Amino acid sequence: ASPACTELEVVMLDWLGQMLGLPDEFLARSGGEAGGVIQGTASEATLVALLGAKARVMQWVKEQHPEWSDTDILSKLVGYCNKQAHSSVERAGLLGGVQLRSLKPDNKRRLRGETLREAIEEDIRKGLIPFYVVATLGTTSSCAFDDLDEIGDVCKSHENVWLHVDAAYAGSAFICPEYRYLMKGIEKADSFNFNPHKWMLVNFDCSALWLKQPRWIVDAFNVDPLYLKHDQQGSAPDYRHWQIPLGRRFRALKLWFVLRLHGVEYLQEYIRKHIALAHLYEKLCTSDDRFELYEEVTMGLVCFRLKGSNNLNKELLRRINGRGKIHLVPSEIDDIYFLRLAICSRYTEES
């Protein structure tokens, strides 16, 4: 119910959206219904978008088939993501009570449009109703980027398939214009999310979600008892209906402080420095013939391993983390175990 809290959040999410080069149709300044909201985490944003997608498709199907019950429709709904998508996408499906399919990525671990098209067409033939797709920009394991442009075209060619973009970690890099090629096709999405608390010097929790049509989420979440009604309803976004909890903190304030304190140019330099350090580490790995890179380096993440068995790499990780100087998190794709050096501390230097 705090107007200051709401007003600052509307403005901050527009500032942030402009910094990333998001299309105007995601921003409140477009004058339509669109806008941004701060969620706690990316997993919350994925669930909120899924519930909006579900509300939208349910209404559409009921118009086509008034005789179908909610249970009939729910059992037919199906969503899609890259097999490399974060586990929170699968969890959103469980919480939303719908089935989600993990699709096989290409050899660069990207989900491609053709794979999605085939899956959707196969499910339609089975009598299922595709309604939700999550495209990941910067997967957790190896920072791979789904082909958003191709995926967007497939979603547009099927009625009422909601496209949500999860750029939790890598999204911060889009404040640098030279990395925006990785979000080509963003205008085809229905919602977009990234975490300023991961790589933009904002403290946890601050996950930015933009929605073109928040009305579907508002409709899905809106219960308006008398004690929550007020005279100004409809004059500003009612953010309690844009999220799962009704109560919320003044999270826009910390975003305002970071943007005012550092400014866009400093934040861009900060991101560029981390990516440059990752490329330096990449060179160190490739110049030592004991090591190999597992994945191309695009952001501040280097996936590398010792040439040899998985057990050898597990032992290396055990020793590195055991010393307590730095902490690495491993991953495993296609039965290959590798180490991940993520540069995300303000204090990391070349030395």
Automatic annotation (TrEMBL):
SUPFAM superfamilies in the record: PLP-dependent transferases
The enzyme's E.C. designation: 4.1.1.28
GO terms of molecular function: aromatic-L-amino-acid decarboxylase activity; pyridoxal phosphate binding
Co-factor requirement: pyridoxal 5'-phosphate
Keyword RNA-binding: no
InterPro entries: Aromatic_deC, PyrdxlP-dep_de-COase, PyrdxlP-dep_Trfase, PyrdxlP-dep_Trfase_major, PyrdxlP-dep_Trfase_small, Pyridoxal-P_BS
GO cellular component terms, semicolon-separated: cytoplasm
PANTHER family for this protein: AROMATIC-L-AMINO-ACID DECARBOXYLASE (PTHR11999:SF167), GROUP II PYRIDOXAL-5-PHOSPHATE DECARBOXYLASE (PTHR11999)
Family of the protein in this entry: Belongs to the group II decarboxylase family.
Name of the protein: Aromatic-L-amino-acid decarboxylase
Organism the protein comes from: Pyralis farinalis
